[in-house]
């Protein structure tokens, strides 16, 4: 597996190798022991999948607070997305900064997002299917988010904001400046 560390500490892009011939390819997309040794020593407890039918659909920016904070390993099974993370660890050198990775089945690239980050994505192609493993189960009481269009964060989405489709819930999420300190940063904190 090929690993790329990102400009923001803790975020890792992983591209599994593919072995192909005239029939197509085979790829081991996840190996627990390898992931624990090379990326983060975590246990995944749930797999999630979403379909977004329309290009320009934005989902996020979501996270869960402790004790149900989630690490996520995200990949795109169909279509193409701009996957986005925002550092919400108060005191982090990259607090409020964002980065993005394009994910598609063409590359097979996956993105590891540890707790302490808000996560979202925008679909670049219609009928995009996203699959992600999480380290904690979904908990409605611990579910939170920040506005995907917060000007203080300044994410450069692939579509004009007026053309993007989002849920009613995501349209009412608070801005980063209004977020309580759910994730205090420590330089020695583990990455899981």
From TrEMBL:
GO MF annotations, alphabetized: dTDP-4-dehydrorhamnose 3,5-epimerase activity
Domain of life: Bacteria
Keyword presence, Ribonucleoprotein: no
Start and end residues of each stretch annotated as Disordered: 166-192
InterPro entries linked: RmlC-like, RmlC-like_jellyroll, RmlC_Cupin_sf
CDD domains: cupin_RmlC
Involved pathway(s): Carbohydrate biosynthesis; dTDP-L-rhamnose biosynthesis
UniProt KW keywords: Isomerase
Quaternary state and interactors: Homodimer.
UniProt name for this protein: dTDP-4-dehydrorhamnose 3,5-epimerase
Phylogenetic classification of the source organism: Bacteria, Pseudomonadati, Pseudomonadota, Alphaproteobacteria, Hyphomicrobiales
Gene name of the encoded protein: rfbC
